[in-house]
Amino acid sequence: MPGRYGGRERRQGSGRPERRGGPGGHREQPEIRGRRDDARLAEELRRMDGSSYGRYKSLTGDWSFPDFTLTVERVQSDPFAPPSRVAVRIPAEVAELPDSAWHAPVRRRATADYLVRRAYRELKGARLRIDSGGQEVLDRAACQIRDGEVLLRLGIEMPGHGRRIDGRTAERELCERLPDMVDALRWPSLDDAEATAFADTVEDTCALRGKLAELGLVAFVADGSVLPRRSGVSDLPMQGSAVPFRSPETLRATVELPHAGEVSGLGIPEGITLIVGGGFHGKSTLLHALERGVYDHVPGDGREFVVSRADAVKIRAEEGRQVERTDISAFVRNLPTGADTSDFSTENASGSTSQAANIAEALEAGSRTLLIDEDTTATNLMIRDARMQRLVHGDREPLTPFVDLVRPLRRDHGVSTVLVMGGSGDYFDVADQVIMLDGYRPYDVTERARELASERTDADFAAPADRVIDARSVDATARGRSRIKRRDMDVLTFGENEIDVRNLAQLVDPGQIIGVGLAMRLLAEDGLLGGGRTLTQALDALEERLGDDGVTALGRGYAGDYVLPRRQEIAAALNRLRTLRVLRSG
Ligand code: ADP
Ligand code: MG
Q1: Exposed site from 75, 248, 448, 492, fewest CB < 10 Å?
Q2: Is the CB of 442 under 6 A from ligand 1?
């Protein structure tokens, strides 16, 4: 019975054990008092060997090692609970990072990411775990650099023989592997050319993305990029048989990057871009790369210089999602139910209404670039051909197809669309440029498509109504405690709610899901959703609040790993929260 007799096993100090909240809470082990250095930690761990697991709790607090400070933040109460959490602070004079590695915010994020990957490699086979991410370079809580100081957050499954402490193994982890890892992360121990090149690449990617607007582009795909992935379940680049990207001359753009110098590739202009081509010729692969182009990629990924506007949102149909007071009237009018589609709610949207809501909400979250793939759309929202119009008359059809709205969206609201559509020529009428993929190579077929185009009368697209969210309907707590968890990449548990995030294509890292939950909590608990702010304004306020602190401003005592998400995904998750209430729409 670990907690129960905890008090008796205590060796040091006289602090009265506190009760922990929650059912089955264990008695808190008093912290170990007196000298708290690495030698003492080793000694304590050896002494604990074989005693009841709950005694690990007495390790809570700071331990000073010669080169760093270890903070034991949270200790699991039994071997089967989620891993314990520790933080490591490596002072600037030990880390010895050159200013060039961290002064600029972009390089700071890149170097932190580099360090976290290095730490991950160093910890292979250890019980210590660090959240090192996949192919994207993101702002993650696992490693932050502040004034040259390196702060790491790790998990560790504290070792046990059944419910008894395995002090020897714990000693090896915390007193040997950890200092070795810290040593490996010091700049003098690193491959500084590699670390510098890593930051250079990320800086180049950001510079490239930053240039898109002035060049009048929504995306750029560098020549030589490798877009296809190894498999449907691997995000690593395809090897061997991948056909490298090569831009068609007529759409080629050349940009000057700070480190890589001149880079040429396909520049996708603002406006309406159609991607056509036969099945299996690489259309979706290109669009997927553009979806991910809002993030920076690690060197060697193949998509380092594949970028899209930071606000680009993948739009898809999502049958079954709920919709809360969203204005979809541009797309849907005169439903058989008589529902007011300018203030539309449902617990169970159809393919077309869900996609309409996804578009309206993406605009509300600030996106002006839409990415759409025929593979995941509702056909009846995308097109209605001439024969169908003759059979089903306008007054019987509540839907205005996207093909009639895509130009007004562009003209009146500055929204660009990149659309994969191999199955219908209707979009020839509205496209500004048409790119055909043939054997994974893009060709500019705009002229040819224009010859095949017909006249088309556009519909109107009135900007969707702004919504004000009721902050009380966004509750991160369950039974009085904050609860933010995730299940794989599918579900965000937020308080008493489960939010289905499976269809958010641009959530690419598990930590982002937690980050989304933490951001939602901040929006609600800090009054950002209040004060009469619209959702759009609340998201602006959130970005301002996060400011330079980035991801760590989200955490607030959250013990696990998390990553900074985009505002688009935060909004998308909010919109899928089943308890969400909208105070005002209009
Ligand atoms: P589409 O959407 O045109 O039907 P996909 O993008 O789904 O085609 O691609 C079909 C297949 O071709 C996928 O297995 C993909 O990995 C592969 N592929 C895509 N681009 C390339 C490329 N540049 N080189 C080699 N294989 C590719
Ligand atoms: Mg496809």
Answers
A1: 448
A2: no
The pLDDT value given to residue 28? 65
| 8 A C-beta contact, residue 259 and residue 203 | yes
Question: Which of residues 215 and 532 earns the better pLDDT score?
Answer: 215
Measured by CA distance, the residue closest to atom 15 of ligand 1 is 228
Distance from residue 274's CA to the centre of ligand 1 (Å): 17
Q: Residues 137, 109: contact at Cβ < 8 Å?
A: yes
Q: What is the pLDDT of residues 219-241, one digit of tens each?
A: 999 999 999 999 999 999 999 99
- Report yes or no: 503 and 312 within 8 Å, Cβ to Cβ: no
Find all residues with CB under 8 Å of 432, minimum gap 6, and list them: 269, 271, 272, 273, 446
Residues 437/277, Cβ–Cβ less than 8 Å: yes
User: Is the entire prediction scored with pTM above 0.85?
Assistant: yes
Asked if 303 and 227 touch (Cβ cutoff 8 Å), the reply is yes
- Report the 10 Å Cβ neighbour count for 157: 16
Six-digit token pair at 193? 């050319």
Q: What does the block give as tokens for 33?
A: 């008092």
* Residues in the chain, total: 586
**Class of 211-465 in CATH:** alpha beta
What span, in angstroms and rounded, lies between the C-alpha atoms of 337 and 154? 53
Q: Where are the domains of the chain?
A: 20-190, 211-465, 467-585
Q: Is the CB of 280 under 6 A from ligand 1?
A: yes
Determine which residue's CA is closest to atom 25 belonging to ligand 1: 242
